[in-house]
Amino acid sequence: MEDIRLLRGRTFDGQNMIENAEIGINIKSGIIEYVDEINGKNNLDITILPGLIDTHIHFFGSESDQLIDWVLTDNVLLTIKSVYDAEALLDAGFTTVRTMGDKVSLGMSKAEKLRILKGPRIISSGYSIAETGGNDDPKFLSHELSKEFSYSYYCDSPWECRKAVRMNIRNGAESIKAYSSRSFVGGGKLKTELTVDELSAISDEAHVAHLKAAAHSYGPDAIQNSLDANFDSIEHGLGITEDQAEFMKKKDIFYVPTLSVYRAKVSSNQERNELVKKHFEKDISIAFNAGVKIATGTDFLGTRNEPHGLNASEIIYLSEFTGNIYALKAATSLAAECLGLNNIGFVKKGFQADIISVKGDPLKEITKVRRGNVIFVMKKGEIIKDIENLIK
Ligand SMILES: [Zn+2]
Questions:
Q1: Exposed, middle or buried, 27 (CB in 10 Å: 0-12/13-18/19+)?
Q2: Are the C-beta atoms of residues 9 and 388 closer than 8 Å to each other?
Q3: Cα(343) to centroid of ligand 1, in Å?
Q4: pLDDT value of position 135
Q5: Residues 235/240/243/249 CA torsion (nearest 10 deg)
Q6: What does residue 42 show for φ and ψ, rounded to 5 degrees?
Q7: Among 117, 181, 212, 368, who pairs with 360 as Cys (CB 3.0-4.6 Å)?
Q8: Distance (Å, rounded) from C-alpha 248 to C-alpha 240?
Q9: Above 80 in pLDDT, residue 173?
Q10: Long-range CB contacts (< 8 A, 24+ apart) of 255-258?
């Protein structure tokens, strides 16, 4: 039994709060052996939770908010910066992230699996998939240079889309991300991108490989195209309608409203600002009231305004609409479900030991999930940090 280590305290198990629990962790296998409710009060004012999950990030490896830097930053520099960002995420209690288009996360994901990267488990989407001239196509470069330097594949037929998915899978992607609309990167007006035929080819190709397909969708037309094309999650989802929310609830399609990015970034684009205003005023309530499953995703890039390590902001913003316990689920058990991972997201017997502990009680005070309060982090049974010697 010497491989079993113990944690005790108030525990949010991914579903419910247990006032006092003992958790037995097999640190050799990295699996939770048991979670027992114990009688009597615990003296420590700490809360144990499943490791946090951010389902929508990018590793752009740049401090800048400009597309030109996202595509042209030197590869070595951007990799080193991203490794630093991965450490910050893990230190903040994020034991799993999903990347949604960048140049380095496929390699980082492999390095994490080899235990040579100190960072969260990385479910990488590899390169994002978009149309030629689309949202993030760096049009200040020639078409040839754009193809060489962008973090997206630009496709213009269902077969080109299938090839891009296959290329990502070949390179180790565990998720697929496509743009069904613009998002005002580089200005312009809102428009749908990729046709339903193209989007359907992407999701179909992802699904035959047992991967989830996520659609960046701004505006009801783009959301509708993504739903018609059988995507598994709507990312951003600005302008969602009640009918669409009803459909998503019925089909178990996730909503990832990425509130943090809109709080972090101010834009001079009037159309964008109006959509964002409505996002906070109506969209989230439409989705939540319809019973659509919501997962936390910040859309942070690792830039100055959207730094990795502060990703708990999404839980705090979401809680304003859903209450604290739902926001905690959205960052743990629901986020795991959104990513199709059935071995994480809970502190329960048989799950991987991705466990964190924070000072105080986030059910009462949600800001306790912020990085400064995270005193214990364990990933896959490995102790990453234990400031107050909680593990016995
Ligand atoms: Zn994004």
A1: middle
A2: no
A3: 25
A4: 84
A5: 30
A6: -95, 150
A7: 368
A8: 10
A9: yes
A10: 255/287, 255/292, 255/293, 255/294, 255/295, 256/55, 256/56, 256/214, 256/294, 256/295, 256/296, 256/297, 256/338, 257/283, 257/284, 257/287, 257/294, 257/297, 257/318, 258/56, 258/297, 258/298, 258/299, 258/314
What is the CATH code of the structural domain delimited by 52-338?
Answer: 3.20.20.140
**Domains in the chain: boundaries:** 4-50+345-386, 52-338
For tokens 């306790």, name the residue. 368
Topology classification of domain 4-50+345-386: Urease, subunit C; domain 1 (2.30.40)
* Distance from the alpha carbon of residue 183 to the mean position of ligand 1, in angstroms: 10
Q: How far is the CA of 14 from the centre of ligand 1 (A)?
A: 25
What residues sit around ligand 1, an ion, with C-beta below 5 angstroms?
Answer: 100, 299
Please tell me the distance between residue 194's alpha carbon and the centre of ligand 1 in angstroms: 17
Which single residue is written with the structure tokens 């005070």? 365
For residues 271-304, one letter each, b for 16 or more C-beta atoms within 10 angstroms of the residue's C-beta and e for the rest, the string is: ebeebbeebbeebbebbbebebbbbbbbbbbbbe
Element (H, E) at 341: none
Tell me how far apart the alpha carbons of residues 85 and 77 are, in angstroms, rounded to a whole number.
12
DSSP 116-146: -S-S-EEEE--SEEE-TT-TT--TTS-HHHH
Name the β-bridge partners of 176: 213
Torsion of CA 254, 260, 202, 164, to 10 degrees: -150
- The alpha carbon of 56 and the centre of ligand 1 are apart by a number of angstroms equal to 6
Flag whether pLDDT at 42 surpasses 80. no
Closest CA to 182 of 149, 219, 153, 151: 219
pTM of the model: 0.97
DSSP letter string over 159-210? HHHHHHHHHHHHTT-SSEEEESB---TTS----B-S-HHHHHHHHHHHHHTT
